[in-house]
Design a protein that fits this description.
about 450 residues
């Protein structure tokens, strides 16, 4: 029965997606059909309705629309420009300074907005034209912008990690947030190292603008209020001053306050922001609701155990099993967006990862890292398309320069997979010992 239902579920889902069916509809239909085969179609319709309602009736979910709204406000409220100037101040004297500025600004903006697409759009629009005027090639800047934009989905706040926390059975959002820092920063640093090497070979110089002490003080003064958002929101969540949901509301209030102080928001812009945020929230909440049906079907017919037995039949090595899981997730990430992929594959692969000695927190970072690479990979890489558009270039011109970035990111992925304490150690130090899996404890000698 398990094999039959698994095949039906996969074939119907893939078939509907190939036909161009919206993914939420494809997930709902395939889940009901597969569940009907295993149970009963009339009963499955009732179960589906119940699971959809139950899946979205979670208090933590309220954090998602508020973080989306906060990110949209920041993107339109002049915060991106202040962060870019601050990043430029930090690395202005380095060769290829505009590339480094783009990378650091993406990490900071991502750490505030939690959106890779917003970071790629904002920084590509602001930094790209300046760099081109200074003699940098469009392809070089667009490639670096695309490669570093996903750091915002790892460095908190991150809606993907909130979604994972829900579907993984209540993993601590705060622990996941803290665990995302080191992998997110590693992602940005390796991209900067490669960009610096390429910039030196191409002769891209440092910033020609002379920065006086007065200018530097002015840049820092303007950037600090925006950077304080990270301290207030993430710090408040970690110390227990408020929950992730309350932190999202604080982020909205604070970002709105800053934007009003900067006088960059009009009523028309604000109404457009509310509209866009509501649309995006509706899409994500609907996905979570219908994916709850699929999660129930997957659990009911015991698909995780079947997949685990299949992988153990291929190899008894935990190293090989996790390599297969990573390769599969990398492949899936090129076709599915992060939210549906997390909702579909977490229930299948989390038990397998835990049997390999990983904690739910460690696997959450691994699956997110995998899917973030998918966001910059064709054929369905959202950040790739946005980065190319704002960089005024083409996919064909950036794919070849992206290849070395893919290689480096895959190496980092292997590092956080086989040295999982790279992600969980910080969370454990912050008071979340459950973040360390058995593998991390063995590697750390605990």
């Amino acid at each position: 029965m398990t094999v039959t239902v698994s095949i039906i579920l996969a074939l119907v889902l893939i078939g509907l997606l190939v036909l161009g069916t919206p993914i939420c509809v494809a997930i709902a239909i395939s889940s009901v059909i597969a569940g009907g085969v295993a149970l009963d179609f009339d009963m499955m319709l009732q179960v589906g309705a119940q699971r959809t309602f139950t899946g979205i009736s979670v208090f933590t979910l309220i954090a998602i629309p508020f973080f989306i709204l906060a990110g949209d406000i920041m993107n339109q409220g002049g915060i991106a420009l202040r962060l870019m100037n601050f990043a430029r101040l930090l690395v202005g004297k380095m060769p290829g300074c505009y590339a480094h500025t783009n990378a650091i600004a993406n990490m900071m903006f991502g750490a505030i907005s939690g959106s890779g697409v917003a970071a790629a759009s904002a920084m590509g629009t602001i930094i790209g034209p300046i760099a081109v005027k200074e003699g940098y090639s469009r392809e070089f800047m667009a490639t670096l912008n695309i490669a570093t934009a996903p750091t915002g989905l790892l460095i908190p706040p991150s809606n993907v990690l909130i979604t994972y926390a829900l579907v993984s059975g209540g993993t601590s959002v705060a622990a996941l947030f803290i665990a995302g820092y080191i992998p997110g920063i590693l992602w940005g640093v390796v991209c900067m190292l490669l960009a610096g090497f390429i910039a030196q070979r191409k002769g891209y110089k440092s910033d020609s603008q002379k920065i006086t002490l007065a200018i530097a003080f002015d840049i820092i003064f303007k950037a600090v209020p925006s950077l304080l958002l990270i301290v207030i929101v993430i710090g408040g969540i970690v110390v227990g001053a408020f929950t992730a949901t309350e932190g999202a509301i604080v982020a909205v209030v604070y970002s709105l306050f800053l934007s009003l102080c900067y006088r960059t928001l009009t009523l028309k812009k604000l109404l457009e922001i509310y509209k866009n945020s509501a649309q995006m929230t509706g899409i994500i909440i609907l996905l979570i609701g219908v994916s709850s049906i699929m999660s129930w079907v997957i659990s009911f017919v015991n698909i995780p155990s079947a997949v685990g037995e299949l992988l153990n039949g291929i190899s008894s090595s935990k190293i090989v099993i996790m390599l297969i899981v990573n390769v599969f997730l990398l492949f899936v990430g090129t076709f599915l967006d992060t939210t549906p992929a997390v909702l579909i594959f977490t229930p299948i692969f989390l038990p397998i990862a835990q049997s390999c000695g990983l904690s739910a927190v460690e696997f959450g970072i691994i699956i997110t890292f995998n899917l973030c690479i998918g966001l910059i990979t064709p054929p369905v890489g959202n950040i790739l398309f946005v980065g190319v558009k704002v960089g005024k270039t083409s996919i064909e011109k950036v794919i070849k320069p992206l290849l070395p970035y893919y290689l480096l990111l895959f190496i980092v992925l292997l590092a956080i997979t086989y040295l999982p304490f790279l992600s969980s150690w910080l969370a454990a130090k912050a008071g979340f010992p459950e973040a360390l899996g058995m593998t991390s404890k063995a590697l750390l000698g605990l």
